[in-house]
Amino acid sequence: MIVKSNHIKDFETIFEIINDASVAYKGIIPEDRWKEPYMSKEELNIQIEEGVEFWSYIENNEILGVMGIQFKGDVTLIRHAYVRTSARKKGIGGKLLNYLIEMTDLPVLIGTWADASWAISFYKKHSFRMVSEKEKNVLLKKYWSVPDRQIETSVVLVSSGWV
After folding, report:
1. Do residues 112 and 82 lie in contact, with contact meaning Cβ atoms separated by under 8 Å?
2. Contact 70/7 with Cβ under 8 angstroms?
3. Residue 64: enclosing H or E segment and its boundaries?
4. pLDDT per residue over 74-105, tens digit each?
């Protein structure tokens, strides 16, 4: 079952899942971009305040995965897609992604780490395509608030509605 997260009631669980699942990035993304916890509670609060709505995949009354959606005028961003390490490879991420894509008629953009090959493959499997380096730089500066170093080490994927 997929439900909109209650950011107050589910905050600790969202925080826990993000930091559990993000361990997959350790040793993969540039060392200067890794930190523990991967996302602090303060950063999570800022994301929520900036309009990221988290949705949860629940099974047997347990949240197994979370994914954020953020509406940014003429596009929709998928943000912070994480599934508990113990629940991976069961289709949870795909179910969340498809559910959130259905919520918008706008093109969907996703940013991820360039070295996170599993994430890129996942999004490509769901009909997203990577944009050029030049377009990526423009999109990350226009729709995200990330440091230049993250822009250098990231990619952007776009839905089939992107021209």
Report:
1. no
2. no
3. strand 62-72
4. 999 999 999 999 999 899 999 999 999 999 99
Q: Which of 144, 5, 136, 138 is nearest to 65 (CA)?
A: 5
Using an 8 Å Cβ cutoff, are 114 and 153 in contact?
yes
Which domains, from first to last, does the chain contain? 2-158 (3.40.630.30)
Phi, psi of 76 (to 5 degrees): -120, 135
Tally helices (H) and strands (E) across the chain: 6, 7
Contact 153, 30 (CB under 8 A): yes
pTM of the model: 0.93
pLDDT, one tens digit per residue, over 119-146 is 999 999 999 999 999 999 999 999 999 9
